[in-house]
Amino acid sequence: MTGTNSSTEHARLELVSTLNAIEDKLNVPRKVSRAVSQGKVEAARLQRQNPAAFFSGVAAVAVVAGTAVWAITRAIVVR
C-alpha cells in the first residue's frame, strides 16, 4: 500500500509542477510585469554606468513619440 501512496504522491507532485510551468508560460500579465521590472533594472544600470547613452536614448524616444503625435494630429486636422 505504501508504494501506491508514494506513486500517487509522485504523480500529484509532477502534475502540480507541470501545471505551474504551463501557468508561467501562459500568464501574460506576469510576463509583462517581469519584463517591465527587468527593463527598469537595466535602465537604472545604464543610467549609472553610462549617463550620456541613457539620456541620448531618452531623447531619441522623446523625438519619436513627439513625431508620432505630430503626424497623427496632422492627419486628423488635414482630414
TrEMBL record:
The keyword Transmembrane helix applies. Keywords: Membrane, Transmembrane, Transmembrane helix. It comes from the Bacteria. The chain crosses the membrane at residues 52-73. The keyword Transmembrane helix applies. This is DUF3618 domain-containing protein. It comes from Mycetocola manganoxydans.
